[in-house]
Amino acid sequence: MITDINQLDFSKTYTYADYLTWQFDGMVELIKGKIFNMSPAPGSYHQSVNGNLFRDIAVFLKHNPCKVFIAPFDVRLSRYKNDQEILTVVQPDICVICDRSKIDGKGCNGTPDLMIEILSPSTKKKDVQDKFQLYEESGVKEYWIVYPLEKLVDVFLLENSKYRLVKKYVQDDIVPVNILEGLNISLEDVFE
Question: Residue 132 — very low, low, confident or very high, per pLDDT cuts 50/70/90?
Fold first, then answer.
């Protein structure tokens, strides 16, 4: 049994089955079987931005078949039934899942429709590069990268298996959620 993150071999490839047995306090993600440390608990402003975005989406989805989830929430970017085959499990800040068959007691088993990552200094490279590529390859329809300190949001849509930057939104913009027709989010409210 792994009870301390230092017992893990960061050069080894791990599965979701391995991940489920770990009993240490720190949070990690698996990307293609490789361990990525999560940053320490997010600061208060990060949490405020996350909560504001989550609230706006959750209120909109109240009587909608799509569901919204907030971290910590395991997203297994595969549809394998066997935990030994799953090599990727991430915890996006927010995700929206419209196919309820992907939701199970452990989180999401499959690709969400929308993923939102709110950048922290220690996760910026992973969110902007590694997760961007991973979400693109996995078929996430819409990906938001939120820059809380700069009060910016980059919105990407998947077109022909590649992300296209829709727009870089700034603090006083209203951002349409492309996969949820009718939902428009005021960044002034998000970044209050």
Answer: very high
Percent of the chain clearing pLDDT 90 (strictly above) = 85
When pLDDT is cut at 50, 70 and 90, the band that residue 125 belongs to is: confident
* Segments making up each domain of the chain, as ranges: 40-72+88-190
CATH top-level class of 40-72+88-190: alpha beta
Contacts 24+ apart (CB under 8 A), 18-26: 19/89, 20/83, 20/106
Which tokens in the block code for residue 116? Answer: 């939102």
Q: Give the containing element (helix H, strand E) for 35.
A: strand 34-37
Centre a 10 Å sphere on the Cβ of residue 86 and count the other Cβ atoms it contains.
22
* Pairing assessment for the beta strands 114-118 and 142-147 based on DSSP bridges: parallel
- Whether the CB-CB separation of 70 and 189 falls below 8 Å is answered with no
